[in-house]
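Help!! Second protein's tokens look totally different from the first
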Amino acid sequence: MYSTAFLDIPPLASAQGTVVLPGSKSISNRVLLLAALCEGRTTLYDVLDSDDTRVMLAALKQLGCVLEQVGHTVHIQGLGGHFKLGSPLVQLFMGNAGTAMRPLTAALALLGVGEGHQVELSGVPRMHERPIADLVDALRQLGCQMEYLGQPGYPPLRIAQPHLNLQRPIQVRGDVSSQFLTALLMALPLVAKQDITLEVVGELISKPYIDITLKLLQRFGVEVQRHHWERFVIPAGSRLQSPGTLHVEADASSASYFIALGGLAATPEDPLRIEGVGEHSIQGDIRFIEAARQMGVQVVSGTNWLEVCRPSALAKQPLKALDMDCNHIPDAAMTLAVMALYANGPTTLRNIASWRVKETDRIAAMASECRKLGATVHEGPDWIEVHPLREAAQWQRASIHTYDDHRVAMCFSLAAFNPAGLPVRIEDPKCVAKTFPDYFETLFSVVQNQAVQVPVICIDGPTASGKGTLASQVAQQLGYHYLDSGALYRVTAFAAVQAGMPLETENEARIALLAETLPVRFVGEQVLLSGMDVTEAIRSETGGMNASKVSALPAVRQALVALQLSFAKLPGLVADGRDMGTVIFPASPLKVYLTASAEKRAQRRHKQLISKGNTAILANLRADLEARDLRDSTRLVAPLTPAQDALQLDNSDLSIEASVQQVLTWWQSKQAFKSSLEV
């Protein structure tokens, strides 16, 4: 998952391959709570691992639930409708997870927390702006004891032991959020000593999410009687019982981004395959497929997969504009707003009032960010109209503010397919952790960039100048891949020595053959060879001397060229090494030559060796560095010298933080986005 302040997505051109979707957030949090409330032990497979599900799991543990999590499998011993509080006051932090906050509120309020006990539920500031009054009002009708700890109508809340009266029908508004009704439907079976009737006031929005709730309740042994979408009856004697095992479907809302991606950038010859969900999913957002087809996207479905592309006959045509009631796909409809930028006319999305009370005001957010890209956008209380950008010249460079909203971040990644060939910046990309922590990694695994080079920053410099540390930290700040080309030579030398090959000219061909298939990976500053950590072994003084020997062998250098080029992957690369900017990536837009005086470098090396318990003489280290500088700068093959267009950075008196900031500032000055850089 990217934890950088922003992520720059280069211009993208095509998509192909296979995407495996994570589990559904809506289903995951529902079944976690139902399994905790019911009687018996439940094993849940393919549970989403995200911010929202972690919030739910943490809360259930605080409430006395015994559970075991192994990867995406969760084993839960049900509480049988009785919470086990460890202290008189339990404080639950719910983040910004509405699918955890609302159902837990109802369950705690109805089941009770025990005499003399209280539970407080709070979240991030945005959660305290999301209305919950309609749910609280409905619960208070039943005798639930609840109070607001801040602004009336909004979290945080305090819940105490109820005095229930379930004789009259319960009225709950349905036109703000379907989560209120879902919360009641999931909790009321535990107190259904007689029939309990729920009456919906106003038009029920997001009906497909209620359908998910009803189908999952069936799996846990509760058959709710639905009278249209206006009245629901929970039969007397209803009991939540474990189904034993349950598999969580992949997230249909997350599928929408890749359905759109396939419609924008995949061909019938190489369609984009989406695994984990099919057209007959129980999730309402799967009906996004219908909207995509109306816009001209070809979708073929199997039991648990989709294949998506743009039909050959329409490949050169814009998408078809829509005017659609999106009440049935409220989350996935956000993707349509970005697809509208590629349409043949204005697209209007209606009946989306629930967008106003989600993680952010999504109507306002989508309108604002589409305008940044150059689009004309109109909005109303429950609708948005997006005009397309038909000509490349209409598109503008944009830094997308994501409002801590995962769906805004994922939607606008699709803007990188613009015909103007402009990059798109996504601010705070880690917000996708709410539902799809690996979204950007998954996206980059199936897209190809336009016929421009993947962005590469090259950093070179003499031995012990700190270029490796600088390069790895710059890569971390930008969310780019990292290549330590010097380590490639060290690893090659290490592997050759391990194989019994003396590092001499007569073994050049054998060492080159070894280098061609070097199974090496970089994880931060850690170097893995065939999965084994060889960082310490190759960083020794001997490792450095051996690297200089093999790097002077032309056949070895040639063998490593293709390997080094393969590290240039989306979204970008920071490459550290001798000929990165002169031979391997000569078109790199930023080349940095990092240097420091031999005295300073010797002091750093001395400190490093002493810290590891090694003995070292400062004068000898300095003499060795000066000798190595002379040897490296005068050798015939790849001499150590700055690229002609390299920017020189003397870090003799700079901290690593200051050096990183300088490189980032230089990089920012060469980018399309001129806003101040945040690190």
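Here's the second one for comparison:
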Amino acid sequence: MLEGKSDSVVLKGIGASPGVVIGPAFLLDYHKVKILKRQIEKGEIDQEKQRFENAVSEAANQIKQLIAEIPEEFREHSGIFETYLLMLKDRMVYDRTLKLISEEQINAEWALNNALDYVRELFEQVKDPYIRERFEDIKYAVRRVQKLLSGSPAADFSQLEKPVILVAHDLSPADTIQMAKEKILAFVTDMGSRTSHTAILGRSLGLPAVVGLENATSSIFSGETLIVDGLCGDVVVNPDDELLRHYGEKQEDYVRYRLDVIQYSNLPAETQDGFRFKIKANIEFIEEISSVISNGAEGIGLYRTEVMYLAHKELPIEEELFLAYQEVVERMSPFPTTIRTLDIGGDKFLSSVSQDDESNPALGLRAIRLCLKESNLFRTQLRAILRASAYGDVRMLFPLVSGKSEIIQVKEHLEKTRNELRREEIPFDEDIKTGIMIEVPSAVLLADVLAREVDFFSIGTNDLIQYSLAIDRGNEYVAHLYEPLHPGVLRMIYRTIEAAHEAGIEVAVCGEMAGEPMYLPVLIGMGLDELSMNALDIPKIKRMIRMSNQNRCSALVRDILECSTAQKIREHLLDFLTSDFPGEFDLSHGLFPDFVGREAILGPLMTEMKGNALNRRLG
């Protein structure tokens, strides 16, 4: 938090949904439920248990009613509320609450609160932000029960008379959907991340959002003027005139920019000298498909399938997986859907699969290694994917492959699964394409060998960079060393693309590099075939591809592959961007017209420029 000479304060959070808005704050504090501990007599235990069970049943009825009343345009989000119904009966919370009522002779509210604290402690031990975010789903379901037990009122947005910026500790997807969109300018929350359901719905609704502020509800009062910058995660409280002018200009610039780039959504991603690229989207949730389609994706390049395994205590059955995959495939048809098999392990855990503690889980039993060990788990997912392939163009992607022996084992499981479906006369695509993710150095070194075994490569730059440079991105002491422009990383990407093309197969990039404009000339120049990214990034990437010259980009790549440091590569790249994309990367103002991800583009230089500018404005 930065304080200036005026009352202006800048709060730093996570930009969850892009856009810049200025307006009055409206503080929601309905989430606070006063919970008191009360000892009960033995004769009251059954009565208290019944009170808890009645509250759970009533909460379930409320959620079912919500599902029934969801407007048609948000019908695709109903699956989120089905998840809440399951959370109401989650054994870690439900059974533990009943047990605490009996054993400690305490009232239902206090027992439920203690059960929730127990679950929170379990989730806090997990590093993965996506899994930690699933605790918010449990908390939402518990909060509904707590309100019923305590008699607290539900959220009421009807009192809003004019457009406001909602400020809350957290907003559930149910809250988000119930908002009158014409009265909501944006929302900011203490909790949340870009992977939360609420953030995804915010993007779907087109509402700018900043989440993970931690202290928004304690720093902001209703009626105060706010600036919400969902592009970089800033929330300015009580901005002075200079800040209002600055963000007003940025707001206008962004609106003009979005109106400009959205025109490129449905245009082909083709360079000025005639080189064509496939642009696809990465998804985790079915709810993202509408955004995928509206932003002009030519298919799904990476469907992360972990959500159905992590959202429930029990493993999903084949039919559950099949129905989810079928819906995605049918909605994306005739475009292809690339389904990645379970990429789980390390600090992503499955409670239903026995795993010993590992001293170094990131290098342990995870992804394809776990699937090959737990063959029933693997074969269930293979059956579901194959069955879904009868309903559209499906491609199967296997993560964290390190050598040929793993591919051989995968093929054996795949053929056995195919034979099972043939015997059962269940239709599937006999010619389904299979590929592997290139994420570890050994796969790069063996790329020529592996390319002869599969139909395509997909380079996962996030893990490839992490494993190649021995960098834990979540470790604050070494995260600054995570460098996509490291010469070793770029040479590995280049080598992988060369090996794939020599074998006659296509290669995609599906990591964060794919959606960053700065890295695009490098990837174009290396000659890859496909980019897969967050759907919101697609229009700006298509726009930049259509401004590019592939031969010029190839010359750039030849130059930077001769560089021995990331700093030299960055200098070459910035010179290239300035000369080939004049006006697109405006360094003089410390802003890029593409806005999103600019800190990642310039690293320390951009951070310093932005910090100096902001400090000057705040005095």
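Reply: Different proteins will give different token patterns, so don't panic. Residues 1-6, 346-352, 587-619 have pLDDT under 50 and may be disordered.
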